[in-house]
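Q: What would this complex look like in 3D?
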Amino acid sequence: MISIYDATRLAQTKLQIKKGSLFISILIPSVLFSIVLALIMVGTGLSEAATSFTSYVYRQGYPLKISPVISDENLLTYKKISLTTADVQKIKQFEISYNNEQKKLYDKAGVQYAAPLPENGLLLPDITAPDTVPANERYFLNINSPIYGKFEQSELSNYLRSAPNKLSSLKSLAGRYNGSGFYKSYPIKIGQIPDQRLILDDKEDLRDPHASPAQDNTMYGLFTRAVRNSSYQVQNDPSFTKYITYTDPPSELQGIPVIISAQEAAILFGQKYSISSTPPADAAAKKQWLQSAQKALTGRTYQACYRNTAERSLVSKIQQDTLNNHLHDNDELYQAPTLQYQLPSSPCGDITIKSDNRPTAEKQRELIEIANAKKLGVYTAPYHAKVTYQIVGLIDAEASRTNNFIDLAKGLLTDTVPISSAVIPEHLFSKIPETLKSAINTTGEVSDTNNALADENISDTTIFFHSIQDARAFLKNEACEMWVSPCSRLYKAAPVGSNYLIIEDVIRMFNTFIIWAPIVAMLLAAAVLAITITRVIIDSRRETAIYRSMGARKHDIVLIYSIYAILISLRVIVVSLAISLIMAITVQISYGQYLQDILNFYANPQAGAGLRVNLIALSSPNLLYVILIIILSCISAAIIPIFRNVMRSPIEDMRSE
Amino acid sequence: MDAGPRSPIILLNSVCRYYKVGDITITALHDVSLSIHSGEFISICGPSGGGKSTLLQILGGVDRPDKGDLIINNVSLNKLNDAELSRLRNREIGFIFQSFYLQPFLTVRENVLVPAMFAGEDKKKRQTYADELLEYMGLSERAAHLPSALSGGQIQRTAIARALINKPNIILADEPTGNLDSRNGKNVIDLLKAIRQKYGTTIVIVTHDQLIARQADRSYTLIDGRLI
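A: Here is my prediction, written as structure tokens for the whole assembly.
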């Protein structure tokens, strides 16, 4: 039998025939395969970059933000129509108990108690109810009742007491999925700190921040106006820790620690330090800008004036009265309010009475109301105080902005936690001197709902899972996506920061895509190869006959032409790889550095993360898969013509020649 | 193995060969019987279409007769399978074609070695013998050249060397001088005679040239498939 060396030598002679058309026949499929190979190389490089990004960013675990679901079905207040007999009785009983308690309170305080009017009751007759509804169910819940809020709160508290999704239950459940590090976020009893007015250049901005025209209500817009809108939130989510550049001990803080957007910091305070109010578009330049802002503004303090609800009401009244007075300036019939206040003359100063033309009886009535409220313990005096904040970190708000597809793609990678408020890190806040905290008297500022949720330890919680698979399993088995409504499960959940689940899905989809999608290109390429090889082998009938006449056996012929097919495939492989490497190198030169800068910026805005992006990735097994396809295409193209050649009697080919 | 003194190396017994062309059956060979002894120089001539090439192809085991038998060295080719037939062609028979059929992209030496490749011979041994043959043919200096660099006579001598590489007992030449001028043609015949003399090879040559045919030990004529 012929040796492989000799068979290869004879096969090589076939490559010398019709070199021009053979070159074209190799080039066309090579180009098609090279596109597939380049796609694999670049795609693998991108996948590896994304994986290293998520591994770096989530080296401490993969966080899910988990929100307990409070189902509407458990709360009577959501069933405003179609009350059952039991519902009606329950509401009536609540109203009677509440009124009795109020009477006792008033009696104890020595204040005359006035029974609520029937039209202010919790239940009102539903005169539109059809006749089929029993008489004792023809009521609807009066949401305008003064005690509706109390009833709503009572319902919630009753439900929460035995809610199945408290923090302790969540810990146990998440533990089964290797979840740990439970960090509560909103609501914490401190809650939000509303409607403070920024004091800038020794002036208190008393304008209604929500009345500003054309406010951008996207996350980006809200976050970059958080200080001016007095939008603060205490957070103990560790995701924010990496933004803190303040390094002195918390005991040396001179204000409430706050992390704000770099953009707002630059607008409010940057001019003095020659920091541009608009960050540059280029990633490297932006990093520089952010670092400059952090260096200049970390540790800087600013003040806001905190006014409680009572004072804010006075400010609103002043603004309304001023507006009305202005509108009715020439209106002789207009009657100005008898009691008017004036805005403070100094930042965070007292609100004083401008004019009081009320009748004596009215003044006395007010005094009595205040005295009664004090006796009942529900009086809150107007209060204001300067609150000092100290910037401990900056966040680039741009990362959460999505104007187009590129931003969406960047958004997948960004590690920025989506937020619309300035963040007060709870671990620093808890350590600041009491004198700094006490300026904020949030009694009555935190909603009863928040208090109830906090009391029962039902809160949004950030949990870190050991692996993406654990996080995914929890999400799949135990929670709904945040946007699902209604949710029949106990929790809603979503990844925190960059959506590593989507990144993993994209990587998986890409790997599937790269196996199946190029099949069309490969089929086309294989067809071209098949035509070429088939043609050559058919044209080799005479040669086959000559070899047979010299004593070549059938398997000698099979070996020679099989090697020929393999030699063709090797040429295709070499040319394909060469073209694909050129393509991948071009992409690497054009985009590699840019992508690397972006990833490092988003992974660690301060110092970068040392991540490297290589779009000429040769590690994917899919490359071998394509090479195997090339070889199999050539061999399978050769099988039938070789078989036909050897099965033919050599004399037929000699005669045909 | 010889059956007796001067037993024929080639024995054709009443061989018939038919071809179908559409519905018509053509008789290429009709009841041909032939006996050739070892070392003989036999010529077969006749007009075109007479069945000469068919007879040569049957003698070489490339074609099988529809009737009758071919025995080479006491082995009936009818009883051999394809692999055995291939082995017999490789070891016992050397073919020389009218159109030479050299591989254009193999050197002279490599072309000579092709039958030895199929024999699975030891590489060194066959190289050595190939060089000997080339020297005998006067082609040593052309050993590394491609056929495109050779003259007609040199090409045919290369083909003859190729036919001899496996030391066959039989050489079958189909119009070996057909594409050569008279001088080269004479040289080829003289060479074949010399080979017969040196190696004792049996030579069967098919030709339409009567002058060449007369140089053989015995000459047959094949007309319309019948051997005369």
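A: To summarize the key features: Residues 187-191 of chain A have pLDDT under 50 and may be disordered. The longest strand of chain A covers residues 384-395.
Q: Very helpful, thank you.
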